Amino acid sequence: MPEPAPPSRAAALRLSEVTCRHGRLLAVDRVDLDLSPGEHLAVTGTNGSGKSTLLRAILGLHRDTSGLIEVAGTRARGTADWTRRRSEVAWIPQRQAAGRFPLLVGELLASSGHTAQAVRAAGDLGIGGLLDRPLDTLSGGQLQRAYLARALGQVAAGSGLVLADEPTAALDFAGQEQVAAVLAGLPVSVVVVTHDRVVAEACGRVAEMAAGRLREVR
């Protein structure tokens, strides 16, 4: 008798006909994507092409969205599901408002679910001495490193997907290389929006977004 086929693994991320609007403006136009566990994808493209909107849609942060979005085979169907997704998917935002009562760096790292690993990562990234600093007192590069450290804590806590939006935009070349190496070394799936050639080259797959459409180029 033939041996039974091994059980299939759910895609880390599956998008089908995902469409997002800003009012009458079509920002993301029928995007399809399948990302296997452990795959790394760089999304390039000009400003305004829909890249950041697509990442936010995956997290349920862009409300005017249609189509299928599954993470690890699961579709969010209500407020509780979206809240759970945002806690389970590691997220490095491009810009993060500090708010009226900004978190301390240490508090941000504690929100990762694995504080010890996040704090270790902060030390490795050169911001270990900033744990008592409010987020709104950090430079752009320090803030990006803080969110990267939190994401590494989330991975240690079990996140299988990392979404990163321009994680090297405020860094010098040495910092860009460091962050690219950290992301490339992650054993989980990664989608990174980037204009940075170093980061894109560290990913196994590269896609370009233009006028809301996604086209794989490598």
Compact overview of the structure:
This protein has 7 helices and 10 strands. It has helices at 51-58, 79-88, 105-110, 115-124, 140-156, 173-184, 197-201; strands spanning 13-22, 25-35, 40-44, 65-71, 74-75, 90-92, 161-165, 189-193, 205-210, 213-216. Helix 4 (115-124) packs across helix 5 (140-156).
Account of the protein in words:
This protein is α/β, with parallel strands linked by helices and 218 residues long. It is built from 7 helices and 10 strands. It has a 6-stranded mixed beta sheet with strand order 6-7-8-3-9-10, with helices on both faces. The chain has a 4-stranded antiparallel beta sheet with strand order 2-1-4-5, covered by helices on one side.
User: What is the terminal-to-terminal distance?
Assistant: 40 Å
Q: Which geometry do the CA atoms define?
A: globular
The count of helical stretches stands at 7
Largest sheet: 6 strands, mixed
Rg measurement, Å? 17 Å
Unreliable stretches covering 5 or more consecutive residues: none
Search tags:
single chain; 218 residues; alpha/beta; 6-stranded mixed β-sheet; 4-stranded antiparallel β-sheet; 7 helices; 31% helix; globular
Write the layout of secondary structure elements.
Layout: E1 13-22, E2 25-35, E3 40-44, H1 51-58, E4 65-71, E5 74-75, H2 79-88, E6 90-92, H3 105-110, H4 115-124, H5 140-156, E7 161-165, H6 173-184, E8 189-193, H7 197-201, E9 205-210, E10 213-216
Helix pairs in contact: 4-5
